[in-house]
């Protein structure tokens, strides 16, 4: 006798890799390791330390082998994901602490290693920023491998033995485990832990496997083989879908592939409006390796490189040489295209461990960004030296964040000049014509834009913070999230004022916030006379398609109308009424820019 029909369940997560998949569930439950604490005899401490080092060496070689295989099967830059895994194995801060624990407390190696990783994980997972949380799965992946070797255990689940195409459902899938799956039999992924910047999400995008992360099915009974739909575009998972769901998603799959094929033809075309105005389409990135995605999707430049991510994942400060190598790599890969490096924008939800930054009552309005740099001048000068050195090889620009007054930009430029003199004295080459810009993201910078324009070569409007500070809405506060309104007339009028000021002074102006990747907002920005739109790499081709479909004159008239309206609702309604059908026909803006995943 047949049981009751399984209940349809719709789950919302984070869109980690775009696309759609329908198939049977394959539940992956990596073996839970129970690491027991043992006290070793004092005379065996050296032996235990040697055992740890052998395990680290073996793990390093195993990951090196995975990297080589991924490099051959997928690509060289996808394989670089595993560079960070190998660096974690050699991280002196972790290894030295574990060895000290073995020597001081006579703990067995697997317990000492596990304890150190758990301590780091707890600290990072308590932070509000998503990046570190996303990459904790990498640290745990590395730790599991080391502990497995120390415990001489073999993973009991063979990932290569999946006999048919499936939807893999896992709590904490890792890049090294994903790399073991047969690609043809992996239709889609659902992952409970991690976000869209986790390495497993990056690898899924490279492998073109639709994936949703941050989705939990705790408390829901799922049997292996039950049908599951993965909507990696909207970040949804449907368990036990109806026939109507399946039919609907079969149509979406076909449309998705057709659209991807069409967008790929735009890669080498110029983003020019139908009446001939060139709009630079550039990308925001956080990791140097992401320049590969910018090139893959035909970006004109890197409009915003968030350099603070070099500082967030370590206990110490990156050296000048480490920073230089990162900047040089990006500059050379993008050359002759430009790379705009934003100096360290720490604070808010991005706490730099080496600065011992403590939580503040109002962190977004506190000790952050350029304020931190000007209070730590040697650290700031080290970064400026690294940037200047990298300019010798490529088209790199530098940009100072959260400038709120003239003193901050003048002090920053003064330090830059000091570094130039030091390099001159040392005979080190750099580009003397380096362009210097500042972000306009607080109302005081808007008011002082005329004066700031005399100090810089370009403006970049950071709309996320500008909206936050203009409307006095903390964008991290979920209770007032609906008050964070990009279409507020107060926001649009400030943006218009900054663009007009830049025009008067003959300097370039870019928007690098979320609004740049929103098709409706982009039309208004273009109409206001913006030079450049910078967004996540995943939105580049759609934006190029939009630009090539409109005339500047049409956008100008649209912008004029928007600035005459007096409420956010009026502006939103006008834009939807005027352009919803056009965007639907173009197949762009299928989901909000804030949910659009970046490939890298």
What does this entry look like structurally?
The protein has 600 residues and is of the alpha/beta class. It is 46% helix and 13% strand. It has 22 helices and 16 strands. Strands 1-8-7-3-4-5-6-2 form an 8-stranded mixed beta sheet. Strand 5, helix 8 (199-206) and strand 6 (211-213) form a beta-alpha-beta unit. Helix 1 packs antiparallel against helix 3 (81-90) and helix 19 (519-527) packs across helix 21. The model is unreliable at 153-158 and 591-600 (pLDDT under 50).
What are the key terms here?
8-stranded mixed β-sheet, alpha/beta, single chain, 600 residues, 8-stranded parallel β-barrel, globular, disordered C terminus, 16 strands
Q: What's the rounded overall pLDDT mean?
A: 86
Radius of gyration: 25 Å
Could you say which overall geometry the principal axes of the C-alpha atoms support?
Answer: globular
Helix content: 40-55%
Distance between the termini: 50 Å
Number of helices: 22
Reported for the largest beta sheet, the result is:
8 strands, mixed
Q: How much beta, percentage-wise?
A: 5-15%
Strand order of the largest sheet: 1-8-7-3-4-5-6-2
Low-pLDDT stretches are 153-158, 591-600
């Amino acid at each position: 006798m047949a049981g009751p029909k399984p209940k349809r369940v719709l789950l919302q997560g984070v869109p980690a890799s775009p696309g759609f998949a329908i198939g049977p569930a394959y539940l992956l439950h990596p073996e839970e390791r129970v690491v027991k604490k043992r006290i070793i005899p004092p005379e065996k401490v050296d032996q235990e330390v040697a055992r740890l080092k052998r395990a680290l060496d073996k793990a390093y070689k195993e990951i090196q082998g995975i990297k080589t295989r991924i490099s051959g099967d997928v690509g060289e830059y996808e394989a670089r994901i595993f560079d960070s895994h190998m660096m974690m194995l050699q991280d002196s801060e972790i290894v030295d602490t574990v060895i000290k624990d073995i020597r001081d407390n006579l703990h067995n190696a697997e317990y000492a290693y596990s304890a150190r990783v758990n301590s780091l994980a707890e600290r990072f997972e308590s932070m509000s920023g998503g990046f570190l949380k996303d990459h904790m799965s990498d640290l745990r992946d590395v730790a599991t491998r080391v502990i497995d070797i120390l415990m001489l255990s073999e993973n009991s689940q063979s990932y290569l033995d999946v006999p048919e195409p499936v939807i893999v459902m896992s709590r904490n899938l890792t890049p090294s485990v994903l790399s073991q799956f047969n690609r043809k039999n992996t239709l889609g992924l659902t992952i409970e832990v991690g976000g869209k910047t986790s390495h497993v999400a990056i690898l899924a995008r490279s492998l073109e496997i639709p994936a949703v992360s941050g989705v939990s099915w705790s408390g829901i009974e799922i049997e292996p083989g039950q049908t599951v739909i993965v909507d990696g575009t909207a970040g949804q998972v449907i368990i036990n879908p109806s026939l109507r769901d399946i039919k609907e998603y079969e149509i979406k799959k076909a449309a998705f592939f057709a659209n991807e094929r069409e967008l790929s033809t735009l890669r080498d075309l110029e983003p020019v409006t139908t009446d001939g105005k060139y709009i630079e389409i550039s990308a925001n990135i956080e990791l140097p390796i992401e320049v590969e995605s910018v090139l893959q999707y035909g970006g004109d430049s890197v409009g915003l490189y968030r350099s603070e991510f070099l500082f967030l994942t370590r206990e110490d400060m990156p050296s000048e040489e480490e920073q230089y190598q990162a900047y040089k790599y990006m500059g050379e890969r993008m050359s002759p295209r430009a790379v705009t490096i934003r100096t360290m924008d720490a604070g808010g939800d991005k706490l730099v461990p080496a600065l011992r930054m403590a939580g503040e009552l109002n962190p977004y309005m506190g000790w952050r960004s350029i304020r931190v740099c000007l209070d730590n001048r040697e650290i700031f000068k080290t970064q400026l030296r690294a940037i200047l050195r990298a300019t010798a090889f490529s088209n790199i620009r530098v940009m100072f964040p959260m400038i709120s007054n003239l003193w901050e930009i003048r002090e920053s430029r003064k330090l830059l000049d000091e570094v130039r003199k030091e390099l001159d004295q040392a005979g080190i080459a750099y580009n003397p014509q380096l362009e210097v810009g500042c972000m306009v993201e607080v109302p005081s910078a808007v008011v002082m834009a005329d004066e700031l324009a005399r100090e810089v070569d370009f403006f970049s409007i950071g709309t996320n913070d500008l909206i936050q500070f203009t409307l006095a809405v903390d964008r991290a506060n979920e209770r007032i999230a609906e008050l964070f309104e990009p279409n507020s007339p107060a926001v649009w009028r400030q943006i218009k004022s900054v663009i007009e000021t830049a025009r008067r002074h003959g300097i370039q102006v870019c928007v690098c916030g979320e609004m740049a990747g929103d098709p409706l907002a982009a039309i208004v920005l273009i109409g206001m006379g913006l030079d450049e739109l910078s967004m996540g790499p995943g939105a580049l081709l759609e934006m190029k398609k939009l630009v090539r479909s409109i005339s500047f004159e049409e956008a100008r008239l649209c912008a004029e109308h928007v600035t005459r309206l007096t409420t956010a609702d009026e502006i939103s309604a006008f834009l939807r009424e005027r352009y919803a059908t056009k965007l639907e026909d173009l197949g762009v803006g299928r989901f909000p820019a804030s949910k659009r995943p970046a490939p890298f």
